[in-house]
Amino acid sequence: MNRLTTSSGAYDLTRFPEDPRDRLRAWDAADEYLLRYLDGIDAEPVDLAGTVVVLGDRWGALVTALAAHRPVQITDSFLTQQATRANLARSGAGAGAVRLLSAMDPVPDRIDVLLVRVPKSLALLEDQLHRLAPRLHAGTVVVGTGMVTEIHTSTLTLFERLIGPTRTSLAAKKARLIFSTPAASPVRGDSPWPRTYELPADVGAASGLAVTNHAGIFCADRLDIGTRFFLRNLPRRQGPERVVDLGCGNGVVGTAAALADPGAEVTFVDESYSAVASAEATFRANAGPDAKAEFLVGDGLSSVPAGSVDLVLNNPPFHSHQATTDTTAWSMFTGSRDALRAGGELWVIGNRHLGYHVKLRKLFGNCEVVASDPKFVILRAVKR
Ligand SMILES: C[S@@+](CC[C@H](N)C(=O)[O-])C[C@H]1O[C@@H](n2cnc3c(N)ncnc32)[C@H](O)[C@@H]1O
Q1: Do 217 and 157 contact (CB within 8 A), yes or no?
Q2: Ligand 1 centre from 8 Cα, in Å?
């Protein structure tokens, strides 16, 4: 746990899942720069009256420090929401001090202050600004913040095009602020999201499927080559069974499993609201409106009952910070072992160099290579 001190107080903040060994802070210089600017330490204080919306707050540091202004947080991440809840509770902010909305929820009707922690995904920023911009008015204060490495010309072009005239501050501790003034009559067009693409013809039961992708999800523009290899080598099973597509993204893996085995009932799980919405759209478009399936936003398999699952299909996340990534894969494998019934199987795809077989053998006492190519390996572990 680390302490963030601002002019409004000191806050003990953590990320989620909370890990006492985790030295990473739950905020960074970009969050501090924005809070300092709002406090008026560098200039006049900003009037935080009316509806304050905070977009892209990573671990809830911004809304916790601004809780007195009863902000609305908009995030695509369930993990962010969990961190925010814990940080708010620890700060003593009363229940309801902050309204938590997901990226898929309807946005507030009128926004007086819009604070944007620039997200990692430009597509998510584009889609969210499309949703929020019509709710701004001439007097809305819009301030963005990000590390210098996260703010590109394309980022500023988005603010300029979707909100109005935009400038940036000087850099401080490698962070920068973005100031936009809502244009009187902007020409924005429609959001290009969600997007649909068609799968190639060589991916088994998923061949030719139309896949829906909301902004910011994994491989929203094209099929990932690892997923493609997974689709070509999915288990061939028949009969009534409960299958989980763990970390489902746009849902291609679980949809392929459901189409290949009509007796299977698939649960799609992801920590991204947009991913789960994409998976639901992909499944419904291909399996039909009445096909049975479950769609869960959550942290891994934490809400799936122990011993209830026959098969888990998993392509773990690998893009984030290495330490975080390893932790997530490990907790997905541990969660799978708990959720599986005796005899149930976990199938995992990963880059060869990630060494998932070591983890699986440690957890399950067995692990076999089902398929491999020069880059990827598909592993199977059975719960004994
Ligand atoms: C490599 S992508 C795989 C997506 C899809 N299954 C595929 O193969 O194309 C990993 C997915 O795991 C999700 N994820 C990351 N951390 C998670 C967590 N703690 N719980 C559930 N899903 C998570 C990400 O949002 C992402 O959609």
Answers
A1: no
A2: 37
What is the DSSP pairing of strand 264-270 with strand 293-297? Answer: parallel
- Rounded to two decimals, the pTM is 0.97
Average pLDDT taken over every residue of the chain: 95
* Pair 127, 19 in one domain: yes
Verify that 115 and 80 share a domain, yes or no.
yes
Is residue 212 included in any domain, yes or no? yes
Q: How confident is the model at residue 321 (pLDDT cuts 50, 70, 90)?
A: very low
Phi/psi for 175 (5° steps) reads -120, 160
Task: Please give the distance, rounded to the nearest whole angstrom, from the Cα atom of residue 17 to the centre of ligand 1.
Answer: 15
- For the chain, the straight-line distance linking the first and the last C-alpha, in angstroms and rounded, comes to 38
Q: List for the chain the helix, strand, coil content (%; round to 5).
A: 35, 25, 40
* Alpha-carbon span 230 to 313, nearest angstrom: 9
CB count in 10 Å sphere of residue 326? 16
Q: Which tokens belong to 228?
A: 């493609």
Domain boundary among 180, 209, 235: 180
Verify whether ligand 1 is closer than 6 Å to residue 224 (CB atom): yes
Q: What is the largest CA-CA distance in the chain?
A: 67
76 touches ligand 1 (CB under 6 Å): no
The number of folded domains in the chain is 2
Instruction: Supply the pLDDT for residue 41.
Output: 77
Name the residue range of residue 161's domain.
Answer: 2-180
34 Cα to the center of ligand 1, angstroms: 30
Q: For the segment 140-170, what is each residue's pLDDT rounded down to a tens digit?
A: 999 999 999 999 999 999 999 999 999 999 9
pLDDT at 322: 46
pLDDT of residue 327: 87
3-state class (DSSP) for residue 77: strand
CA-to-CA distance for 131 and 126, rounded, in angstroms? 9
Q: In a 3-state reduction of DSSP, which class is residue 115?
A: strand
CA distance linking residue 96 with residue 78, whole number of Å:
18
Contacts of 56 (CB under 8 A, 6+ apart): 74, 75, 116, 117, 118, 119, 124, 125, 128
